[in-house]
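Key result, reporting period 2: structure in, sequence out.
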């Protein structure tokens, strides 16, 4: 089973914020494949499961808020006996230009508290990631305010293409190694 963790914050007030790009990507993938999300209390998450391209896929949206995302990941691993090497985490990245995505299979949290929590709860920095660019705000704009702000109208138009690229990478990953996926989508 391949499984994708989209990082974000639960609640209507966060739905369209930059920090919720992971949730947005999973929602787009789910819509394309007819997957619906259901609450899973043991994992503190909304989970969607389906057969896509002949293989089982799980989509996980932690409901713990960003800074505790690792709790949901750990619970999913333990409850479903999921293998960490089949996980891909999708999240916002300040150091990737808005409109672009970057794939990596290891590294530190880079200041991202959701990734920091996952590293803490899995005990490793080696797991597949799709970093979705949101760019850094111009100084002195506070980072916390920026990531929790919504996209403006012009950005929202560009966001559609960026999310489509993420969904393409997710779909490609289902039948290819992560190295092959990186080679194709890190351009």
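The corresponding designed sequence is given below.
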């Amino acid at each position: 089973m391949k499984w994708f963790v989209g990082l974000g914050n639960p609640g209507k007030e966060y739905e369209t914020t930059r920090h919720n790009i992971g949730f947005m990507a999973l929602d787009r993938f789910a819509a394309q494949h007819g997957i619906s999300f259901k609450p899973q209390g043991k994992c503190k998450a909304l989970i969607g499961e389906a057969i896509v391209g002949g293989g089982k896929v799980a989509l996980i949206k932690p409901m713990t808020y960003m800074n505790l995302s690792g709790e949901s990941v750990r619970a999913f691993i333990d409850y479903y006996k999921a293998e960490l090497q089949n996980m891909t985490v999708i999240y916002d990245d300040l150091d990737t230009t808005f409109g672009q995505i970057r794939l990596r299979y290891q590294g530190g949290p880079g200041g991202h508290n959701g990734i920091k929590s996952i590293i803490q709860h899995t005990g490793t920095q080696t797991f597949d990631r799709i970093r979705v660019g949101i760019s850094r705000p111009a100084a002195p704009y506070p980072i916390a305010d920026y990531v929790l702000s919504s996209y403006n109208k012009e950005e929202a138009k560009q966001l559609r293409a960026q999310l489509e690229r993420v969904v393409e990478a997710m779909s490609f990953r289902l039948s290819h190694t992560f190295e092959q996926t990186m080679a194709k989508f890190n351009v």
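The longest strand covers residues 45-52. Helices lie at 21-33, 69-80, 113-122, 143-147, 153-173, 178-185. This case is discussed further under Risks and Mitigation.
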